[in-house]
Design a protein that fits this description.
Layout lengths: L14 H11 L3 H12 L2 E3 L2 E3 L11 H24 L11 H15 L3 H11 L24
Antiparallel strand pairs: 1-2
Helix pairs in contact: 1-2, 4-5
Amino acid sequence: MIEGDLAKCFDTISHSRLMNLIESKISDRRFTKLIWKYLKAGHFEFKTYKSNIIGTPQGSIVSPILANIFLHQLDEFILSIKNDFDKGDRAPQARTKASRYYEYHILKARKEKNIEQMRKLIAERAKHESIEFGSTDYKRLSYVRYADD
């Protein structure tokens, strides 16, 4: 598992790269100019005007959409890696011999209504691995991108 955190994601988006992405998909220049003006619009901080050189203004409903447009490249890159990484059609039977042994004997004790033996076997089963994850014939890459702020 790989976990990444894009620190200050909204604050560090390059205006020119973002606009190149948007303009490659949207041909209406009046609309793209509005987005450009939105990105360049400054704000007042304690009676001082500050302009945005990079980043998208936070708190707006447009910023998450622009961030998703910008991060779509990352999604496409990871999915291209996934195609090369994935291997096999189905996961192999992954239960261990010990797991199957205890499951059989627990069911047998249940049929015989031997509660004491069942409890003993369940406690013993908990000490052993039940699944083997070491197969080299099957592997999958799963990708999830989300915003937590």
